Amino acid sequence: MLTKSAEGLSRSTLADYRGSVQKLSVWLEGQGLAGVAVDQLTTLHLRRFLADLQHRDPPLAPKTIRNVYTFLSSFWSWLGVEFGFPHILRGAIRPPRANPPAMRLPTQEELERLLRACEWSREAHTVGREPFRMRRPTARRDVAILLTLVDTGLRAQELCRLTLADLDKNDGSLLVRFGKGRKQRIAYLGKRARRALWRYLATDRQGAKPDEALFMGLGGRPLTVSGLSQLVRKLGRRVGVKVSPHMLRHVFATEFLRGGGSTLVLRRLLGHASDGLLARYAEIAEVDLKAAHDAASPVDRLRL
Length: 304
What we know:
Oligomer: single chain
CATH class of the largest domain: Mainly Alpha
Largest sheet: 2 strands, antiparallel
Strand order of the largest sheet: 1-2
Radius of gyration: 24 Å
Order of helices and strands: HHHHHHHEEHHHHHHH
Helix content: 40-55%
Distance between the termini: 59 Å
Number of strands: 2
Number of helices: 14
Mean pLDDT: 85
Strand content: under 5%
CATH superfamily of the largest domain: Intergrase catalytic core
Structural class: mainly alpha
């Protein structure tokens, strides 16, 4: 773990590496092999371990199993460099398939319901008076959060680590300092999302210091990833919409392509995206390639 930490990997990635090794350790213990030395493990051991992961109840997601394989492969590469151990996965065990699940995203109507859920409480019923709703005290913040997620495609951790100093008040862009691989990038907000963010800051964050979090949680503390996830899911449950912060990242990507954006630009805006994931976004967005070519035909545009 010290080596991986020195490589500049994020805490979450380091936790995944540690978790993969721990899964193998627990499995070995269950097989009566708790005391076996690492150099005594064989390809057969790891093949049986990976097969066991695929038949657990409840089952692990295919992507999780593939990640375990990837992290263990990296671990054995390190053992080879440091101690000369043979690599018992590479070339001997194929990476498990990670068939992506169907990507079901919130519709425009569902997103509108989510925004309304930010504004008002559930309908209250009391004896002797008409049913009523109250405006939620965090309405402006919650609307700003949802619109920022949908308009930028930020990851939950990236949004929670934003500070007021990361907001460019001239154009409303956001400096993402802690992206995947610790790479910085700029995220952009459209007019509606900017207005929602300005309303929240002007009304609820007057006098806030530049080094304070852009979005605050309860008790005057920075909003956490867990708190953000709970907030989005809770709003979704109130209006019958299954949603998470990461699903809103997918919404951004597909709507960006539907609006005519290119996959090259999208990759930069997302900070990181595999070719396979970009292809899935394009498929969901049903980008009309003929229309795209008609709009960008070099011969027509240059009038040759």
